[in-house]
Predict the 3D structure of the following.
Amino acid sequence: MNVIRQLKSEISTASGLDDGIASAIDWLARHQEEAGFWVGKLESNSCIEAEWILLMHILGIKDDPKYSGVLRAILNEQRADGSWEVYHDAPAGDINATVECYAALRAAGFSRDDERLVRAREWIFAHGGLRQVRVFTRYWLALIGEWPWDETPALAPEIIYLPAWCPLNIYDFASWARATLVPLCILSVRQPVRALPAERRLDELFPAGRENADYSLPEVEKGLMERFFLVVDWLLKRYNRLPVQFGREKAIHLCLEWILRHQDYDGGWGGIQPPLIYSLMALHGEGYALDHPVMVKGLDAFNPPWAYEKNGGTYLQCSESPIWDTLFTLLAMFECGHTLTDQPMLGPALDWVLSKQITTWGDWQVKVRGVPSGGWAFERANTRYPDVDDTALALIVLSMAREQVADPGPIDEAIGRAEDWLLGMQCRNGGWAAFDRDNCSAIVTKIPFCDFGEVLDPPSVDVTAHVIEALAARGRGMDDPAVARALAYVRREQEPEGSWFGRWGVNHIYGTAAVLPALAAVGEDMSAPYVRRAAQWLVEHQNADGGWGESCASYMDDAMRGRGASTASQTGWAMMALLATGSHDYDPALRRGMEFLLARQSDGSWAEPEYTGTGFPGYGVGERTNLKQVGSTLDQGAELARGFMINYNMYRHYFPLIALGRARSHFGLAPQGRTEPIPMEHAWVKGAVGGEC
């Protein structure tokens, strides 16, 4: 009888898995874009919409058709206490988002007596007032005449003169900070102001009067280097007041040229919002009219696909993720046993991915010589900043796809370029960063400008693990020199309790879920004590409902590691990690995870309001320990708010699907897929690989 019951249980499990997987794949078929890719919306925080409203004021644009919708999006996100938060269900509001939203609503004509603004103002005062806001928020207030420009950190366009070997050159900054810094240098010295009308000024945020306001940055513990740069900042501000600054106009001209060279074909810069919005203001201030083609393209970048409708409001994305989402979707389909033969939607997706390989020049080449381009970016139009993570994932997916075609030559060409590029981007410590190699110059974190989060791009375990997995897909083992150095880095970074920190996903669940599949792929002994310690950490952090979850708060509070409401994406990650061990010791946890996912699946997908991705996690400046050292006067909620978190709307779909597909194989329930090579009539068979996006 026990055997019969076990058999019935296995049949029931197999049937449930098959139904869940089939339903998820049907969902993908309904949501594939016409060009062949998949993309989910990236939800961030209301600073994105607020800054667009302020941009419209600064540029004098009064007739954009999405204006009222963007205002509705801002109002939709106000918390009951009057504040705005930086991720779903954060423990506290964010002073920066709240001040920027308040300023945007006032700029749009909302009365200071509006009940929503009264609540926001009370919250701002209760949390330290304007003195607590970050540098970027101070720049925005200066641009609209609400903050003295001289009370913002000074930047100098002359930085553009510094060669790549010189400390504090622009290529010492992370790609996202670099692309933001260049236009801000122009704004910092030109100090443009488009003041709010008298009836819309923010006088009510200065209850003691502007003349008595404290414009200084919050007091923090300053080392010798920080004090040195404060002196430099003081000197630079006085230099800027001189009637002549030698070489200044040429420096501004070179900064403008840099900006123009870096505009993407969709009108943006670097595939992210900050360089886009600051570049438009810098260009306009230097005489570029609103009808200039560069400005027209840039302003159009805020329209769809970056703009989207939700709950009656028009939301603006901070970035977009079509390459990342498409690659993980392809991986999920392959893991579920589907091939290019039996799924018509896979061929066009693969064509689209191959067309996005970047073979042109990028910023990374300034410090990485002699390595040909061959990476992929995160966004569809960003060609200057290919990233290691997307490229590693592409290498894994293409290595699987090449086994399914009769002529793998074109795919092999793309794989070869990608592998060479990845090897060329390995950092000195054995790890890989996202966009640059050895971008670890701590001196840049000491300048007053850098209070907003990461300005460096050091190696991270999650990116490194994905590269290890990619190199394993190319047949490299633990004895390969590049892999051996990477493994040594990963082992050094393991936390004492067994987990790994997640830089680009939340957080220790993400980091651990990146490492264990990589170790398995490269041939590590998955019964090794350090591997079992990691797996046991995951088992111990499974929630009572069978899922896994981790709050963004874990970046600030170690007690929150692996703790949080269960989510589909994080449950998928944890299952992927446990499945990678190949051990049946964790089957009870895996079965509970499967039950959680299948029980919560609806219309083929999963609901997930929680934010499980990161832009800037908020753990501090220059190192991943703590904003508590950076802003000791802030309350915990304000500290948490310094991060920039993201809800990737497709994480909830393809990560559970990958986990379910692998679980089906692990439990011996997977159907046999087709494996024979087949001829295809797609572009990559005909040899069209790489090139322009």
Observations:
- Confidence is low (pLDDT under 50) at residues 619-641, 672-693.
- The first strand starts at residue 42 and ends at 43.
- Residues 13-40+321-666 form a domain with the Glycosyltransferase fold (CATH 1.50.10.20).
- The CA atoms of residues 219 and 633 lie 7 Å apart.
